[in-house]
Specification:
InterPro entries: YEAST_sf (IPR038704), YEATS (IPR005033), YEATS_dom (IPR055129). It is found in: Nucleus. Keywords: Coiled coil, Nucleus, Transcription, Transcription regulation. This protein is an alpha+beta fold. The protein folds into two domains: 53 residues, no CATH class; 57 residues. It contains two helices and two strands, in the order ββαα. It has a two-stranded antiparallel ribbon with strand order 1-2. The longest helix is centred in the last third of the chain and has 55 residues.
Amino acid sequence: TETGWGEFEITIKIVFIDPNERSVTLYHLLKLFQSDSSAMPKKTVVSEFYDEMIFQDPTAMMQQLLTTSRQLTLGAYKHETEFGELDQRTKEKMEAAKKRTSQEITELKDKLKASRENINYLKMEIRKLEEDGDHKEH
């Protein structure tokens, strides 16, 4: 229903033969241009995402359909994106972010501890000054 040039979110609804299985709705970003300007211009635009459907406890009918249906593709399909490498890079980025977050938490805990110690020290100094003031008044 949209017109123009750029990118659009499209809705994909998968309805299964088995009436007991709920339909699944997926959303995919349809890109009509190459967003990576450093890439060599191609005749085709590729924007691949990996989605996987896992059927937990499928009905008997669905189990039979999933295991006995013939494959629709003729051999292995070669994707433009190497999903194994992408998965590994994502894991590495997540580990690096986790490590950075742990370091920041440790630093902030140390700062909090130092601030609390400083507050306790200042409270003690205030008490001393108040006690000295009380002694001088008497």
